[in-house]
Design brief:
244 residues; alpha/beta; Rossmann fold; Arc Repressor Mutant, subunit A; five-stranded parallel β-sheet; four-stranded antiparallel β-sheet; 8 helices; globular
Length: 244
């Protein structure tokens, strides 16, 4: 395997599934590393001997679970793209993964072809971040960046640039910010966010959305406790406003 091949770290404790995934990832030309225990996986991911291009991470593991691993990596300012494997489309798993900072999720059982497409998508975004070239937009109407109030959201690079700092965004954060900015002034319900942004179609606790909005406000508001851009519409959801 060439040392130039993207390295995919697979964290999965089901041995049969892991070996099948490793075989197919290698057949696609990826280098691979496998961990099956949460504690050992986190130790490796925090200090890998070579750069990791993407992480495929199961939720349920012996030792630390996948959600704890995601939170620990993001707290350590490690922004390697993470594809979280969740348990049979359980909405609580999906939402917890989104809140923790995962970039994408895939419910078990899944088609191999879909997993490979998701990985390629994450790697493409990583390439955009490390390249000075401007990527082609995903669709003609999809802007690469959006600016307001001395802030610029770079959807292509997954960054929010402010006068003081640059904030790394997860794919889920960037997707939600894009959804809001494309509908500036419109009231967006919590159910719209669940179904149209995160593709969670089952009834579930929406408090995770409120927690997620709190995090976004820390990014885009001068005073997150008194937001003027991402405001609450009581009993319904939220509205994004360029100006107060």
């Amino acid at each position: 395997m060439s040392s130039q091949a993207p390295l995919i770290a697979l964290v999965e404790d089901e041995e049969h599934l892991a070996q099948g995934l490793l075989f197919n990832l290698q057949a696609e030309g990826y280098a691979t590393h496998h961990e099956s225990h949460g504690d050992e996986a986190l130790a490796y991911l925090l200090n890998p001997p070579e750069p990791i291009s993407a992480i495929v991470l199961d939720c349920m593991l012996p030792g630390q679970d996948g959600f704890s691993i995601v939170r620990a990596l993001r707290a350590a300012q490690i922004y390697t793209p993470i594809l979280l494997l969740t348990a049979r489309s359980r909405p609580e798993d999906i939402l917890e993964g989104i809140e923790a900072g995962a970039d994408d999720y895939l419910p078990k059982p899944f088609e191999l072809s879909i997993l490979l497409v998701r990985i390629k998508s994450l790697l493409r975004r990583t390439a955009w971040q490390s390249s000075a070239a401007t990527p082609e937009p995903a669709a003609p109407e999809a802007a690469a960046a959006y600016s307001f109030d001395n802030r610029t959201i770079r959807f292509d690079a997954l960054e929010l640039v402010t006068p003081e700092k640059t904030i790394h965004l997860t794919l889920m954060e960037a997707d939600l910010l894009r959804y809001f900015t494309e509908r500036e002034g419109q009231v967006i319900s919590r159910s719209q966010i669940l179904e149209q942004v995160w593709h969670v179609h089952q009834d579930t606790d929406t408090r995770v959305i409120d927690n997620f909005i709190v995090r976004l406000r820390r990014y885009i508001e001068e005073d997150p406790a008194n937001p003027v851009h991402l405001v609450t519409v009581r009993g319904v959801g939220y509205r994004f406003l360029v100006r107060a």
